[in-house]
Amino acid sequence: MGIVGTVIYLSMIFILARGRLKTKGAVGKKLFAYYLGFALFNMITCYYFRHQDFITSLKGWTSLLLVFYYFTFRTWKLSISFWEKVIMFMFMIILALYALKYMFMDWHFIKLDTEDEYLDKESRVRIFCDGFLTLGYLYCLNKYLALKKKLFLFFAVIGFLFIFLQGFRTMVAAGIISTTIMVLRMYKLTFRSIILVTFVGVLSLVAIFTIPLLSDKVEEMISRNETQNFENDDYIRGREIVYFYTEFFKSDAEMFWGAGRTPFGEWSQFKGKFPSEYSKERSLLATDYHFYPVDLGFLGLSWETGIPFAIIAVLLFINLWLLKVDKRYLYISCYGLYMILIGLTMPQGIYHNNLMCLAIVYTIYEMAHHKYFERIEIDNCKKILWKEKISK
């Protein structure tokens, strides 16, 4: 189960036992109700179709239940500034971890005296809650645009640099779109906003074509695009889609409700001891064919959790994008947009324990959303009083 899983289960039991799961005033509470309902139903269908027991299914669902910490956080009555400090703290940690990653494994600033073949080949480092990299970038950009403090601009640039250096085309494109939308929402479609977006775009292009570190990464993405596309019959994601829709599911009902979540990974992780036959099957697919539903974003999520649950997961991020807040908190709205954009091919918003990040985002959003309407109500009262004063 692991430390994280144990903490989640014990805290969830404590919350429910003490009756602390209060939903009055919570934003998106109906979505969370459906989220939990479809999750429980998926465990039932997994038992029916794959004969996996509920405890094993619950272990597989661990990371997707982290979002319910939102209902714990909101009872602590902490301020928005506190949670924003948490975002910055996590952002700093993520930046430090990525810096160490590139120093050790990509830029070779430090020579490793090791015979481990894993470090000699291309690899990806998985970082717990790496969604704070995106959230931290958008937060710093938002604060710079609102407060004009150059320190926020510095960290925003560093944050986007690390997003860019990961080499994922979808993430870069989503970052550019989210940044543009934030600028336009801050200043609206004015001459100033157009000049600012154009200036940043030109400056970025100059940096990309003149700095070897960046130009090499662009060439790498272009080269990868030539082979990693659906026109290539050997493209791993294309073969994975074909397999799951033609061979994996036992029936159309299982395809709709999802095959279920289970602890799985490379064969060596379990050393032949699997918690269920379904876990063994998924681990074989991962080891022999490198089939990971996580690589297909929300589509891959639907294979495990079912189409209804995947739709609710998407709506949680759309809800962030649509709810109204003050311009000081646009980073939350743009975070929702970013996760929607990358969700077609990337799992960042819902995997790697990033739903803890989403729980914090919803905690801030609730307070910012209520503040927004309180301010509107106050402004309306002032207008009414002013009109009454004039009429007298």
Q: SSE layout and pairings?
A:
Layout: H1 2-17, H2 29-50, H3 54-60, H4 70-73, H5 80-106, H6 131-147, H7 150-165, H8 169-187, H9 191-210, H10 212-227, H11 236-248, H12 252-257, H13 267-270, H14 277-289, H15 297-305, H16 307-322, H17 330-342, H18 355-391
Helix pairs in contact: 2-16, 5-6, 5-18, 6-7, 6-8, 6-17, 8-9, 8-17, 9-10, 15-16, 16-17
Describe the structure.
The chain has 392 residues and is an all-alpha fold. It has one domain. The chain has 18 helices and no strands. The protein has helices at residues 2-17, 29-50, 54-60, 70-73, 80-106, 131-147, 150-165, 169-187, 191-210, 212-227, 236-248, 252-257, 267-270, 277-289, 297-305, 307-322, 330-342, 355-391. Helix 5 (80-106) packs across helix 6 and helix 9 crosses helix 10 (212-227). The longest helix is centred in the last third of the chain and has 37 residues, at 355-391. The protein is globular.
The average pLDDT score comes to: 80
Uncertain regions spanning at least 5 consecutive residues: 16-20, 107-123
- The secondary-structure class comes to mainly alpha
Overall form: globular
Q: State which percent range the strand residues make up.
A: under 5%
The Rg value, from CA coordinates, equals 23 Å
Distance between the termini: 71 Å
Tell me about the largest β-sheet. Answer: none
Number of strands: 0
| DSSP helix fraction | over 70%
Number of domains: 1
Counting DSSP H or I runs of 4 or more residues, the number of helices is 18
Order of helices and strands: HHHHHHHHHHHHHHHHHH
